[in-house]
């Protein structure tokens, strides 16, 4: 039985040869698949103005997933808070909590999830909202849990509906020390986005634990990490499928974001551009292999960070490869037994 609590982050990636809107339907199907496999949580991300990731309205996607699942926790990783009024976010997630009581996670991030012009179009006052991020997170925690706002708050009389006996789980998602500091100060869970920043988790968690201030709901730190992982029936097959991810990563580092290519086409493009060596290096460093090998790597990584919660992000052109990857990992961790228990 698994000693780790495993979750999934799905970014609604676009793939070459398919319409963009299919990515949203694939995310919903993936959530149902991961629930059946026994995963703990299923999170969706927020991106804007992208040709490669099209989950631009995570609160709507969470509602659709919550209505089609029964056990798995569903949420965001995360809502990019500077784009929105905190009261509206609180209202949205109180409604989601009414749809799926006790199953809603509200991950909040400070990053824009898009380019500067798109961010300005979403909220022309976004720069000010970035500065108010800690206070806005604090207000959302109060509004979603039915607790009073800070003493002397100008909006103390406002109540968020619908009220209920349960509340969303609010956490901070970040890829730097800043998010760790905010989560520690507010006494809430913190998830480090290691799929964005592979080398900052250890320091962020050290800061999070050192400065953690216990809260009513969370008496101790609750660190988690989100990593890229890909499993297949063999090491060779996993490395082949990984070519899609390798090309996507190399493109991202060069500021290029395009739909995911099939693995064979990705390999051919990597060769044509002379990027084979870099792709091989990425494969050597990644958590890929057969299910047992990926499970060993995840356990070793989590043990080194001292975390018991790991969220997995998998990218592949074919949704069946993504489904198979999550199935191989679930099998290696006996998630179905854990879910049944």
Walkthrough of the structure:
By secondary structure, the protein is α/β, with parallel strands linked by helices. It contains 14 helices and nine strands. It has helices at 21-37, 58-68, 86-99, 116-122, 126-131, 133-145, 177-186, 201-210, 235-253, 263-273, 276-285, 291-305, 319-332, 335-340, and strands at 5-10, 41-44, 73-80, 104-109, 169-174, 190-193, 223-232, 287-290, 309-313. Strands 1-2-3-4-5-6-7-9 form an eight-stranded parallel β-barrel, surrounded by nine helices.
Strand order, biggest sheet?
Answer: 1-2-3-4-5-6-7-9
- Indicate the CATH topology: TIM Barrel
Query: What is the domain tally?
Result: 1
Q: What's the CATH H-level homologous superfamily?
A: Luciferase-like domain
CATH architecture: Alpha-Beta Barrel
Low-confidence regions: none
Main β sheet profile? 8 strands, parallel, barrel
Beta percentage is 15-25%
Number of helices: 14
- The counted number of beta strands is 9
Q: Fraction of residues in helices?
A: 40-55%
Pairing-aware structural class of the strands and helices? Answer: alpha/beta
């Amino acid at each position: 039985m698994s000693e780790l609590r495993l979750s999934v982050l799905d970014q609604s990636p676009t793939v070459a040869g398919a319409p963009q809107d299919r990515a949203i339907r694939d995310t919903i199907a993936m959530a149902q698949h991961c629930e059946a496999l026994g995963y703990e949580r299923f999170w969706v991300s927020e991106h804007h103005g992208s040709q490669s990731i099209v989950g631009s309205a995570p609160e709507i996607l969470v509602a659709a997933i919550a209505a089609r699942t029964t056990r798995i926790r569903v949420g965001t990783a995360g809502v990019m808070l500077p784009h929105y009024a905190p009261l509206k976010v609180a209202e949205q997630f109180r409604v989601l909590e009414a749809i799926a009581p006790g199953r809603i996670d509200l991950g909040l991030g400070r990053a824009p999830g898009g380019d500067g012009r798109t961010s300005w179009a979403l909220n022309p006052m976004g720069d000010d909202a970035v500065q108010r991020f800690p206070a806005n997170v604090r207000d959302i925690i109060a509004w979603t849990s039915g607790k009073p706002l800070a003493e002397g708050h100008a909006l103390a009389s406002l109540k968020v509906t619908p009220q209920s006996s349960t509340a969303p789980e609010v956490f901070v998602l970040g890829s730097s020390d800043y998010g760790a500091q905010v989560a520690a100060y507010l006494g809430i869970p913190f998830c480090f986005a290691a799929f964005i920043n592979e080398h900052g988790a250890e320091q962020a968690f050290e800061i999070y634990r050192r400065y953690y201030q216990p809260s009513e709901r969370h008496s101790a730190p609750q660190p988690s990490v989100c990593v890229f992982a890909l499993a297949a029936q063999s090491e060779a097959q996993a490395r082949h499928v990984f070519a899609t991810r390798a090309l996507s990563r190399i493109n991202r580092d060069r500021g290029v974001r395009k739909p995911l290519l099939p693995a064979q086409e990705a390999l051919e493009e990597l060769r044509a551009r002379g990027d084979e060596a870099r792709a091989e290096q990425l494969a050597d460093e990644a958590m890929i292999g057969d299910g047992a090998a990926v499970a060993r790597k995840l356990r070793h990584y989590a043990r080194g960070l001292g975390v018991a919660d790991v969220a997995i992000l998998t990218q592949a052109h074919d949704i069946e490869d993504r489904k198979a990857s999550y199935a191989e990992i679930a099998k290696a961790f006996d998630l179905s037994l854990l879910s049944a228990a």
